[in-house]
């Protein structure tokens, strides 16, 4: 069995966003192979994997403002990902079980990113 090497156990947001990106990759692969769906799956793949990439990129931000900006962009990508998941569900490309499995993950990421950006925004002001 393969082991996951890209998860940082010291940072919950980095770990959660990475695990979510892995789920998105697998879901998109399934959509392409089983449903021959390429347009929406590519949109979902782009936005769903960008969340973790931006969180990881923020680690080496040039300033606190740059860090906040990267997290804001990750938040926007998470919101877009939620949109694509809703669209896939409402168009019956993913079933209820699949949607109910992944929906809590995106909701959790959104919650963490909203909280983090609010906190950081206050710190940047001072």
TrEMBL record:
Name the record gives this protein: Four helix bundle protein
Organismal lineage: Bacteria, Pseudomonadati, Campylobacterota, Epsilonproteobacteria, Campylobacterales
Pfam families from the UniProt entry: 23S_rRNA_IVP
InterPro entries found in the cross-reference section: 23S_rRNA-intervening_sequence, 23S_rRNA_IVS_sf
Species in which this protein is naturally found: Hydrogenimonas cancrithermarum
Domain of life per record: Bacteria
């Amino acid at each position: 069995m393969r082991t996951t090497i890209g998860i940082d156990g010291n940072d919950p947001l980095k770990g959660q966003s990475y695990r979510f990106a892995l789920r998105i990759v697998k879901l998109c692969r399934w959509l392409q192979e089983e449903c021959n769906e390429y347009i929406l799956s590519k949109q979902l793949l782009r936005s769903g994997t960008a969340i973790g990439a931006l969180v990881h990129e923020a680690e080496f931000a040039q300033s606190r403002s740059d860090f906040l900006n990267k997290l804001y962009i990750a938040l926007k990508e998470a919101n877009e990902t939620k949109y694509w998941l809703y669209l896939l569900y409402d168009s019956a490309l993913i079933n209820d079980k699949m949607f109910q499995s992944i929906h809590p993950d995106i909701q959790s990421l959104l919650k963490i990113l909203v909280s983090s950006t609010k906190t950081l925004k206050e710190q940047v002001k001072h």
